[in-house]
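re: ur question from earlier - yeah i can do the single chain one, its not a big deal. heres the input i used so u can compare w yours
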Amino acid sequence: MQDRILWYFENFNFLGSLSILEKMDLRKRVKMLEATKNQTIYLPNDEANSVYFLKKGKVKISSFSDDGKELIYAILGPGEIFGELAITGQSKREQIAATTEYAEICYVNIQDFEHFLASHPRLSLKVTKLIGFRLKKVRSRLERMWFKSAPERVKCLLLDLIEEHGVKIGDEREIRLNLTHQDIASLAATTRQTVTTTLNELEREGVITYDRRRILVRKPTALN
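and the output i got, formated as tokens:
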């Protein structure tokens, strides 16, 4: 299992600054979790005692409003870290992390990870930048909610998904996330009906091809 974890580390770009010996040191502190589809990793008010590294599968970060509406903050893919706000002193989780398909996840106790970061300043800087980048994305999403129409938010979301998960196929980009219209609505802070109308219009214009398995963006520039 430990050798398997070490091999998994090769898939995390932000660990690229570590030597093989440093990765072996981190390996000793890490445990492995195999999660089934729709398995909850943590809930709001759970103790923020670990940081997670997603090796395989997808993880959805979300929350629910008082009236039961889901807001999806991110859908993470292989090679990404989550639960990282524990590093900033967060004692309780504020969001839900759950798999959307079978996933393989490495996790490390927050105290162990903090000690490791203290002796590896290059990695600490990368994690700090990662946290800053995600906070910037949250701010950008809030600005969209205030200043962009619902169809514009859907188009901006597609551009984000291209950047984060898109696979280049010639001039086209393929997003393989198995997203429902409701998932897209929750990510774009709009209604399912608006998403359906917007996606249908984009399909008629030849900008995208959509099904539950993927979104093929044929004309990425048309989304700007």
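The mean pLDDT is 86. not sure if urs matches, ping me
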